[in-house]
Amino acid sequence: MFFFSNSFDEKVQNFIMDSFPGYQxxxxxxxxxxxxxxxxxxxxxxxxxxxxxxxxxVEFLSDKGKSIENYLTCEVKLFDNVLVAKRDIQKGKNIEQxxxxxxxxxxxxxxxxxxxxxEVSNHRSATFIKKGExxxxxxxxxxxxxxxxxxxxxxxxxxxxxxHVDAVTQQDGWAEMPxxxxxxxxxxxxxxVLDSKNVLIIE
Length: 203
Hints:
Order of helices and strands: HEEEEEEEEEEEEE
Largest sheet: 6 strands, antiparallel
Helix content: under 10%
Radius of gyration: 27 Å
Strand content: 35-45%
Oligomer: single chain
Structural class: mainly beta
């Protein structure tokens, strides 16, 4: 809950909250504003945001009684419940619920953060995640259909003929992605992932 010394500050706070809904907590600081009684929020023009700076459209009444359009600069903190790593997580580790806790964090300068552990089921860490680090979308990836070292059936199709051989994958792979494979006779091919057990030789 926020309390303000005058109604204009409260109107700015409410206008920002209405314009950027969904956060758990808001902190707003109006930058370099002296004569509050001369400003009126202009709801007919769009509000703008750049990270932790919000530009509120206002009309300023000059000493000569002329109305001038301008933007009021506000520093904001937008808080949300974000998944934060409880421990170091090595690259390639499956994401588990116990690896993270929900913490109230200022996310005004952060994009692509995650708030629900269910969003990352069937995912693994794409890089090393340090204890205390926020979980961002770019830090994780879907678990591959095929992992390096898996035994698969490699198909080579010509017309209606399907010739297939046993092979071993040389790298992780996802659906439709090309990966390297090695057959029993040590030949290397490039193949497209079909599912967890089958690949299609393309080179």
